Input
Amino acid sequence: MTKEAYTLTSPDGSKSMELPVREGTVGPAVVDIAKLYKEQGIFTYDPGFVATGSCDSKITYIDGEQGILMYRGYPVEQLAEHSSFIEVCYLLLYGDLPNKQQLDRFATSITRHTMLNEGMLRFFNGFRYDAHPMAMLSAVVGSMSAYYHDTMDINNPEARDVFAHRILAKLPTIAAAAFKKSVGQPFMYPRNDLGFSENLLHMLFAVPAEPYEIDSVAAQALDLLFILHADHEQNCSTSTVRMAGSSGANPYSAIAAGVSALWGPAHGGANEAVLRMLEQIGNAGNIKKFIAKAKDKDDPFRLMGFGHRVYKNFDPRATIIREMCHKVLKQLGHTNSPLFELALELEQVALKDPYFIDKNLYPNVDFYSGIIYRALGIPTSMFTVMFAIGRTVGWVAHWQEMITDPNAKISRPRQLYTGPAQRDYVPIAKR
Ligand code: ACO
Output
């Protein structure tokens, strides 16, 4: 919907232009500047895209001030309470909640796509014993385009759908294989009698030598974490997937690009960084010292798991996960978790500190997710991989939306050039 326009006038008043304003369903409107350069010969400048919308999207809505997160219009709190990860996947991919038959069919299809081509499994032997699981994940996801040629036609809706099911189903299998490689254990094949999160626990922790009993609380906690991480509109990794895919690259390559973007500590790598930070702090007696480091402009240390580009009051996912953290620790018998106690203490100190209050810095979802993963026996280096398992559906939903958007273009930002002006080549003997 379009409402009244902004008028942009050049500094000398010689040129002016009407910039249309477009309104979404909810949330701030956008000023459409697409014709600005053509008509005015000037670009806009917004490093980090802090005030720039890159596309139309019907998938996820975030209100950073109110702490609202909705998938396809459903508040994440309701989905966390009533839904399952597989149902949320359906919702994100197809736009509406499924009926019973649709859900059963979808869940069966995901289950039946979990096995990897055997050739892909051999990749894992080639990695060093100490390879980071995220390095293996991005490489093996990228390699999928070498195996599944039948889903490379991005203009074929059926091929796109098979791709979506395939990548959602196989990501946990690849993640588990990366983990098994890192601990030197045999790879465990997926089991079709298990649900999504149960099967992942089986592939991670079962060994061929003895039966493995799946803990229902652990499966429930994983399912919840995956729901909370499933999508977050145009975040760094999702924008990367859209950008890579905008060139018409095959979808496996676009998702591999997203995995790589997720790895950074300012994004998905934060859950790993939080645990390493808590270990570094060690005990409550050191909190003051580390808070001072986080506030010191000359010290690169930041309080990991604090702050968010969009949420400036609270992260609704953090509230849900904090509760789950209590439940998981209690039910798994960790009545005394020094790491969780330290996290709670650190949170309280930071929340009362004027530096964090003034800059609107609150705990984000990843302040707590690592503590749950740790309680479930998942090693720190696997935390971002777990995030990737949950986020894959968001990446796929956005890739699908972009590919089918008639107005989508190759992503190609411009720049403010600050390098040397034209100069003449000087032969090497004269330099
Ligand atoms: N510790 C200390 N100071 C911080 C922190 C922090 N965690 N986060 C932001 N600040 C300060 C900045 O130094 C800046 O100060 P200034 O105004 O004096 O320069 C101010 O708060 C604003 O921060 P920006 O970096 O400009 O905010 P931005 O939106 O660019 O960054 C980000 C957000 C990357 C999440 C940042 O808060 C951060 O690095 N947090 C720690 C890493 C983290 O937890 N990332 C996970 C994000 S959630 C996710 O991906 C699931």
In short: The two ends are 59 Å apart (CA to CA). The chain has a mean pLDDT of 93. The first helix runs from residue 36 to 40. DSSP finds 18 helices and six strands in the chain.
